[in-house]
Amino acid sequence: MDGTAEQPTQAEPPQITRRWDGDALFRTLVVLTGISVLIVLGAIITVMVTGGWKAFSTFGPSFFVTAIWNPVTQHFGAVAPVFGTLASSFLGLVIAVPLAFGTAFWLTALAPPTISSVIGMAVQLLAAVPSIIFGMWGFFVLVPVMAHYVQPTARHMFGHVPVLSALVSGAPFGTGLLTAGLVLAVMVVPSITAVMRDVFVSMPTVLRESAYGLGATRWEVMRQVVLPWSRQGVVGGIVLGMGRAMGETMAVTFVIGDSNHIGWSLFAPANTIASLIALEFPESPAGSLKLSSLMALGAILMAISFVTLWVSRIFLARGEARAGKRS
Amino acid sequence: MTRPVFSQAADRPQRSGVLALRRKIIDKLATGMSWLAMLIVVFVLGSILWTLLKNGLPGLTLSLFTHSMGAPGTGGGLANAIVGSLLQTGLSILLGAPAGLLTGIFLAEYGADSKLARTVRFVSDMLLSAPSILIGLFIYMVLVEPFGHFSGFSGAAALSLMAMPIIVRTTEDMLRLVPVSMREAGIALGAAKWRVILFICVRAARGGIMTGVLLAIARVAGETAPLLFTSLGNSEWSLDMRRPMASLPVAIYQYAGSAYQDWMQQAWTGALLVTVGVLIINIVVRVGIRGGRT
C-alpha cells in the first residue's frame, strides 16, 4: 500500500507528492495507543508487585509456603487462598468439562439443526450473564440444597468409609469448596461448550461424512474422528475456562464460606485469592501489611492467569493452524 | 495400512454380529449421556433464569426507578444505582472505545505481523482475561489512594480497562474483513492512508465495530468486582463523578448479603434488570450479525 502511494513519476507536479497528508501523525497516534496497552499491563504488574513488596520482604519466601492467614498476629501466607483457588477451579472443571463436552456433542451430532441453533444460541447467551447472578443463584438456591440434601446424604453414605469420610467431613453449612466448584462449573459451561462446538463444527465435513460412509456410529465418529482432529482446540477451550474460573470473584465470594483453612473436606469453607481480596480489602487500611499481602496475592493470581492464557493460546493456535492446513 | 479402527468388525464376519451389537450399545450409551448432559445444562441454566424471574418480577415497581436507595423498611428504590451504572458504563465506553478503536486500527492496518503488533495483541488478550478484581485493585492504587477518596471516575476508569480489549479485538477482526481492493481504490484516488482507513475501512466495518462496542457495554454493565474498590457504592442520589457512586451490581452485592427482606427483594429485581439488559444487548448483536451476513 505504501509502495503504490509513494511512486511519483518525474512528470508529476511536486506539490502533490510533497503535500502534508497527516499520515505520519496518524501513524504515530495509533502506534502510541498500541504501546499504551503495553504500558497499562506493565503498570498493573508493577503496582501489584510493588504493592505486595512489603509482604514479600517481611515474610520472604515463606510467604509462598505458609498456610496461616491471621490478621490479629499480622501473619500472612499465600498457601490457603492459592489452594482454594486451584481446588475450586479444579472441581469446577471436573464437573463442567463432561457437561460441556456432552452438550457440544449433542449440538453438533445429535440435535435437529433448528433446535441445535436455538439451544446453541441460548447457551452462548448465558455466557454473557454477569457473574454476580451466578453467585446469587448459588447462594439462594444451591447452598440450601447442599446443606439440606447433598451434604447429609454424602455423610450418611461415605461417613464411615475410611478415606472418603475425610472428603465429606465438616458441619453442613452448604457453603464450601464443592459449592464453589459447582457454581464455577455452571458459570464456565456455556463458554467451554461454545468453544467446543466451534472446533467441532470447523472440522471439514468430508472427514465426518467419510467416517459415516464407512459405517461408523455417531459416537465412533466423535471419539475416533472429531476428537482426535480437534483435540488442541478442545484443550485450549478448557484451559480458557479454567482461567475464567480461577479469576472469578463474585460467583465464588457468595458461596465459598470465607475461611482460610486447608483440608480434605469437599464441604469445608475455604477462600480463593479473588474472594479473599474482595472480602478482606475493605478492612485493610492503606499501607498496612495486610493490604500488601492482598496485593502480593493479586500478583500471584496475575501470574497464574498469565500462564493459563499463554497455555490456552498455544493449544488454540495449534488447533487453528491445523484447521487451516486441512480445510 | 490406514484402515480405520471402526471397520475392524467387517474383517471378522463370524464375530461381526456381536461386535455390531457392542458398538450399538456403546453408541446408545454415549448418545444417552450426551442427551443427559445437555438436559442438565439446559435445566440448570433455565433454573437460574427462572429463579431470577420468580424473585425479581414481584419487586418491579415504579418506585424502584424513582427513589434512591434507603434504609430497610423505608421503601427506597434503586434509581441512584441505575443512573450510576449508566453514567459509569457510559464514561467507560467514551474512554475505552477510542483507545480500543485506535489500537485495533494499529493491529489491522499498521502492525500486521510485526513483533510490536504481536506483543500488543497478546497483551490486549491478557487484559481481556485478567481477573476483574485485579483491575479494581490496580485502579484503587493509582486513582483512589493518591486522591484519598473513592470516585465515580475511578470506577469508570476500571470499567474502561475491561471494555477496551473487547473493542480492540472486534475492531481488528472487522477491519481484516474489509477487502484490499477497497483500500487500493481509495489510494488510487489519491487519498492519504489515514483517510482511507478512517473513511473507507472503518466506515465499511462500522457495523462490526459497533457490535464490539455493544458487547463491551454488555460486559462492563454487569461487572461488580472492579467497582468494589473504585466507585465503592453510595446510598444517596449523586451525579458527581468525583464522589463515591452507586452502581447496580454493587448495590445487588450489598443487598443480597443483607438480612432484610425488602433489600433482598431489591437485590433480585436489580439482578433481573441487569441480566435482562445484558441479554437484550447480546440478542440485538446476534440478530444484527445474522441479518448483516445474509
Automatic annotation (TrEMBL), chain A:
<dbReference type="InterPro" id="IPR011864">
    <property type="entry name" value="Phosphate_PstC"/>
</dbReference>
<dbReference type="Pfam" id="PF00528">
    <property type="entry name" value="BPD_transp_1"/>
</dbReference>
<comment type="function">
    <text>Part of the binding-protein-dependent transport system for phosphate; probably responsible for the translocation of the substrate across the membrane.</text>
</comment>
<keyword id="KW-1133">Transmembrane helix</keyword>
<feature type="transmembrane region" description="Helical">
    <location>
        <begin position="24"/>
        <end position="49"/>
    </location>
</feature>
<protein>
    <recommendedName>
        <fullName>Phosphate transport system permease protein</fullName>
    </recommendedName>
</protein>
<comment type="similarity">
    <text>Belongs to the binding-protein-dependent transport system permease family. CysTW subfamily.</text>
</comment>
<dbReference type="InterPro" id="IPR035906">
    <property type="entry name" value="MetI-like_sf"/>
</dbReference>
<dbReference type="GO" id="GO:0005886">
    <property type="term" value="C:plasma membrane"/>
</dbReference>
<dbReference type="InterPro" id="IPR051124">
    <property type="entry name" value="Phosphate_Transport_Permease"/>
</dbReference>
<dbReference type="GO" id="GO:0006817">
    <property type="term" value="P:phosphate ion transport"/>
</dbReference>
<keyword id="KW-0472">Membrane</keyword>
<feature type="domain" description="ABC transmembrane type-1">
    <location>
        <begin position="82"/>
        <end position="312"/>
    </location>
</feature>
<dbReference type="GO" id="GO:0005315">
    <property type="term" value="F:phosphate transmembrane transporter activity"/>
</dbReference>
<keyword id="KW-0812">Transmembrane</keyword>
<feature type="transmembrane region" description="Helical">
    <location>
        <begin position="294"/>
        <end position="316"/>
    </location>
</feature>
<keyword id="KW-0813">Transport</keyword>
<feature type="transmembrane region" description="Helical">
    <location>
        <begin position="164"/>
        <end position="189"/>
    </location>
</feature>
<dbReference type="InterPro" id="IPR000515">
    <property type="entry name" value="MetI-like"/>
</dbReference>
<keyword id="KW-1003">Cell membrane</keyword>
<feature type="transmembrane region" description="Helical">
    <location>
        <begin position="79"/>
        <end position="107"/>
    </location>
</feature>
<feature type="transmembrane region" description="Helical">
    <location>
        <begin position="119"/>
        <end position="143"/>
    </location>
</feature>
UniProtKB/TrEMBL annotation, chain B:
<keyword id="KW-0592">Phosphate transport</keyword>
<feature type="domain" description="ABC transmembrane type-1">
    <location>
        <begin position="82"/>
        <end position="285"/>
    </location>
</feature>
<keyword id="KW-0472">Membrane</keyword>
<dbReference type="InterPro" id="IPR051408">
    <property type="entry name" value="Phosphate_transprt_permease"/>
</dbReference>
<keyword id="KW-1133">Transmembrane helix</keyword>
<dbReference type="GO" id="GO:0005886">
    <property type="term" value="C:plasma membrane"/>
</dbReference>
<feature type="transmembrane region" description="Helical">
    <location>
        <begin position="91"/>
        <end position="110"/>
    </location>
</feature>
<dbReference type="GO" id="GO:0005315">
    <property type="term" value="F:phosphate transmembrane transporter activity"/>
</dbReference>
<comment type="similarity">
    <text>Belongs to the binding-protein-dependent transport system permease family. CysTW subfamily.</text>
</comment>
<feature type="transmembrane region" description="Helical">
    <location>
        <begin position="267"/>
        <end position="289"/>
    </location>
</feature>
<keyword id="KW-0812">Transmembrane</keyword>
<dbReference type="InterPro" id="IPR005672">
    <property type="entry name" value="Phosphate_PstA"/>
</dbReference>
<dbReference type="InterPro" id="IPR000515">
    <property type="entry name" value="MetI-like"/>
</dbReference>
<feature type="transmembrane region" description="Helical">
    <location>
        <begin position="149"/>
        <end position="168"/>
    </location>
</feature>
<feature type="transmembrane region" description="Helical">
    <location>
        <begin position="196"/>
        <end position="218"/>
    </location>
</feature>
<dbReference type="GO" id="GO:0035435">
    <property type="term" value="P:phosphate ion transmembrane transport"/>
</dbReference>
<keyword id="KW-0813">Transport</keyword>
<feature type="transmembrane region" description="Helical">
    <location>
        <begin position="122"/>
        <end position="143"/>
    </location>
</feature>
<dbReference type="InterPro" id="IPR035906">
    <property type="entry name" value="MetI-like_sf"/>
</dbReference>
<dbReference type="Pfam" id="PF00528">
    <property type="entry name" value="BPD_transp_1"/>
</dbReference>
<keyword id="KW-1003">Cell membrane</keyword>
<protein>
    <recommendedName>
        <fullName>Phosphate transport system permease protein PstA</fullName>
    </recommendedName>
</protein>
